[in-house]
Request: fold
Amino acid sequence: MRQEFPHTLVRQAYDRCEHRCECTNPNCDHDADKYGRCTQMLRWGAWEEENDSPDSWEPHLIDPDRPPYISNICLLCTNCSQHAATQPG
Reply:
């Protein structure tokens, strides 16, 4: 089941991440910059669409035991999101 997030919170996170995936997982198969961060650009509105376009993404809780605050949310492109879902822990 997909986690629901307040629209204003997602917009704040989208602006914070400069419209780019926030994945820095070294075990992910994303294309990374020199700091290890995914290079996939995110398109506003794509998170609400049910499609597999390259610029689609999802908000995720960093710590699922904490509520969805700006410090506990990250935005992941579809590739990194699917990779994160298959990781243990």
